[in-house]
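User: quick one, fold this
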Amino acid sequence: MNRKIVNPTKLPPLNSTYSQAIVANGFVFVAGQIGLDPATGKLVSNDIAEQTRQALENTITVLRAAGSCIEKVVSVSLYLTQFDELNRVNAVYGQCFRKNGPAKFACGVAQLYGRAKVEVQVVALV
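Assistant:
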């Protein structure tokens, strides 16, 4: 199996326990992204819509570094600490994924890293 690790330098440094993405067998598996501002390494705000927008931008950065793009995403997983905010998350999500979007999973969780309110994880074609 051919496996390539992707860690774009445009995003905040990560700890040694994971990679931003792995490219394998024609797919790119992107690690969960939260709304961290790449310039500061901190959440962009406390607003779930703004965090979603930044998490998607971070996802796009990783996809590009892996040789893919948002149009090639086949699966999305959304994790929300406030599931009743799914409509606000979907409003931002719908700006990236318009018609014939990828398969999507969403669930509520008790807590996310750094007190984020949303985390986005995707699988895409290369």
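User: anything notable?
Assistant: The chain is about 25% helix and 30% strand.
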